[in-house]
TrEMBL record:
<keyword id="KW-0030">Aminoacyl-tRNA synthetase</keyword>
<keyword id="KW-0460">Magnesium</keyword>
<protein>
    <recommendedName>
        <fullName>Lysine--tRNA ligase</fullName>
        <ecNumber>6.1.1.6</ecNumber>
    </recommendedName>
</protein>
<keyword id="KW-0648">Protein biosynthesis</keyword>
<dbReference type="InterPro" id="IPR045864">
    <property type="entry name" value="aa-tRNA-synth_II/BPL/LPL"/>
</dbReference>
<comment type="similarity">
    <text>Belongs to the class-II aminoacyl-tRNA synthetase family.</text>
</comment>
<keyword id="KW-0479">Metal-binding</keyword>
<feature type="binding site">
    <location>
        <position position="408"/>
    </location>
    <ligand>
        <name>Mg(2+) 2</name>
    </ligand>
</feature>
<keyword id="KW-0067">ATP-binding</keyword>
<comment type="subunit">
    <text>Homodimer.</text>
</comment>
<keyword id="KW-0436">Ligase</keyword>
<dbReference type="InterPro" id="IPR006195">
    <property type="entry name" value="aa-tRNA-synth_II"/>
</dbReference>
<dbReference type="Pfam" id="PF00152">
    <property type="entry name" value="tRNA-synt_2"/>
</dbReference>
<dbReference type="InterPro" id="IPR018149">
    <property type="entry name" value="Lys-tRNA-synth_II_C"/>
</dbReference>
<feature type="domain" description="Aminoacyl-transfer RNA synthetases class-II family profile">
    <location>
        <begin position="180"/>
        <end position="487"/>
    </location>
</feature>
<dbReference type="GO" id="GO:0006430">
    <property type="term" value="P:lysyl-tRNA aminoacylation"/>
</dbReference>
<dbReference type="GO" id="GO:0000287">
    <property type="term" value="F:magnesium ion binding"/>
</dbReference>
Amino acid sequence: MEKNTKVSERDERLKKLKELQNLGLDPYPSKAKITHDIGQTLADFKALEKNQKDIFIAGRLRVIRAHGNLTFARLDDGSGQMQIVLSKKEVGQDNYKNFTKLIDAGDFIEARGRCFVTQKGEESLLVKNWKLLAKALRPLPEKWHGLKDEEERLRKRYLEILTNPDVRDLIEKKSVFWNAVREFMLKKDFLEVETPVLETTTGGADARPFATHHNALDMNVYLRISMGELWQKRLMVAGLPKTFEIGRQFRNEGMSAEHLQDYTQMEFYWAYADYEDGMKLAEELFKHVAKKTFGTLKFKIRGFEVDLNKKWQTYDYQKVIKKETGIDVLDASQEKIEAKLRELKIKYDKKGFNLTRGLDNLWKYCRKNIAGPGFLINVPVTMEPLAKRKKDDSRLVERFQVMIAGSELGKGYSELNDPLDQAERFSQQQKLREAGDEEAQMHDHDFVEALEYGMPPTCGFGMSERVFSFLADKTSRECQIFPLLKPKGR
């Protein structure tokens, strides 16, 4: 029944569209005349009311109420909503008739008129003339923001944004978030760069890439899985001391509340700095961005109370796992770790399973009770093929990860700049790939060659839009404007 009603409403609007065209009225003109947006009009209302000059505003009609010779409507242009009033006497009989008969809620119009206050005290625009800008053929939903079917909400996200102020606010905050990141990095004298999205070998992360074909060069290429890590480190070789990039990256992996396949990431690279310098800068960055975006440093995230202003802790990878599971990550065999995963009933992908994947699954089990804020340190060298070994224990690397609400929200390390060590680690990663681990890193011979020309001591750090979703206490999917969905019927 509901489907038939919608079809009938669309048919009625199609009839109105035809009638408008028969009257010689263009239902989809190219341009509108606007002298004021609605937000500006309401802010300057008293002055505009006093001078009594006509202004032009435009927007979508949200509500229309006809009362004989007077019609009241609400106009929304994205900067605000304002009541407009049409009088048969003011606009003329034909214009009034056309409006009440052929115009619907959801249509876009341009209105010329003067500001006045109604008898009920509402700041309004008395319309002298109007012009249709776009005829909507489907009616707007009345309670879209209450829809429980998440798939349908996300598929027609434009309707959720239109009808749910909280979703629009989330999108606006996300813009503030990334602008705050950029502002912070620029103030710290980092140079913003752009590196390739298409690569012949992927680098900078343990992840399964998306593959495609480059027709002009007749070769297979990959969409990047990091924010140009190996490219930005080439820029360190080139003599640029501080670089950062904000952009889109892609990982052909599973979906969850925290993980997406294409998302925004920021990475910076800082010559003559190490991972301890990186931790200090990352903490400062998080505080700046949180305050700028949300106006606070205190958050409720995934059931945790998180205060970014308190002293940030350090969490030792080896000690945390041993305390939670009894496993010594520097001594345990792959078989022992796999047995522990089965004992703890931790689900894991058996394809390409190895020691590194086993440790990663074990850590994900242990991290869930860490509230943060703080840094995870002392990770085994097998977990990070691009980081420097620790001076006091070559089994570990100089790596840190931001820990908040039971998850990692950023990773950095003292970058490995020893070309011989790097080549050896790439070789080990290549063996893992050949054994079936699709997330192991590819051997990038060109990058090793660049390192042989000399790269200064460097710290790198990366964080993704998952930081925003955690601070907003929303799923990553909810925080994307248009998340990827299967087409209907598949």
